[in-house]
Amino acid sequence: MNRHLLSTADLRREDALLVLDTAEQMARLSDRAVKKLPTLRGRTVVNLFFEDSTRTRTSFELAAKRLSADVINFSAKGSSVSKGESLKDTALTLEAMGADAVVCRHPASGAPHRLAGWVHGSVLNAGDGTHEHPTQALLDAFTIRRRLGRLDGLAVTIVGDVLHSRVARSNVWLLHTLGAKVTLVAPPTLVPHGVSAWPVDVSYDLDAVLPASDVVMMLRVQQERMSAAFFPTEREYSRRYGLDADRAATLPEHALVMHPGPMVRGMEISSEVADSARSTVVEQVANGVSVRMACLYLLLGGADERDEREVTR
């Protein structure tokens, strides 16, 4: 792997499979009495979050601690950033602290890429604007492979607010790299410009696509990023693009329903479907720790023979 994890488009197939295979080993730790490895002892991981986050920040923190790293949680609120400090000045401060890895979430697309040019440690993109969220895509792929046994040849349908979704972008590139066929389903107003250059099919008819889908990934409508009306009403959106029990019944018996969270129940997905046996929502959260452990482990050079014996024992 490269020194940073900024975009799933940068991952070769062998890189992505290495992360998934390593995450599988990390997941075995949950069956042990002591759920920690000494791999990153003496290393410092900084969680640098300029946007609110619960699942991602906590997941990265737990992942680093399970690898015995020291963790610094840096929130923009209440820091010098709120007083006008620039991203570069913040980066230089972290560099002076000796950060070995910086996990960055930022409202501006491309911010982690800029950060990677200013620090010597590894930078992991935990979500930048509407651009990408690579570890979310990796944990989604990990969850699919665990449930269905493969990714090659699967039909994955991503539904909803694709325009504002960094999760959708990261999943499109990663799933394509891993051999899945991706179809985007959204209102025309929520399909990004330039999507013709993406390795996807586009449909505006959810009912037509569901019967042939192995995986349906629902997206939250990100109204906080919208400066105009992208659809008439929430009820109309739900009627055309929401996944309820009747629509879920048209899926193949083995098909999975996914959601990166947070879910808006009753709008993009019904509670009946979100809590059903085919839903992987809770698994995705749990698998996030294993996948983020794998990313930190590989990026920070933890894979020596002694540590591999500890993981696989």
Automatic annotation (TrEMBL):
GO MF annotation list: amino acid binding; aspartate carbamoyltransferase activity
Pathway connected to this protein: Pyrimidine metabolism; UMP biosynthesis via de novo pathway; (S)-dihydroorotate from bicarbonate: step 2/3
GO biological-process terms attached to the record: 'de novo' pyrimidine nucleobase biosynthetic process; 'de novo' UMP biosynthetic process; amino acid metabolic process
Residue intervals of the Aspartate/ornithine carbamoyltransferase Asp/Orn-binding domain: 152-299
Aspartate/ornithine carbamoyltransferase carbamoyl-P binding domain segment(s): 3-145
Family under the similarity heading: Belongs to the aspartate/ornithine carbamoyltransferase superfamily. ATCase family.
Name of protein: Aspartate carbamoyltransferase
Organism: Pseudofrankia asymbiotica
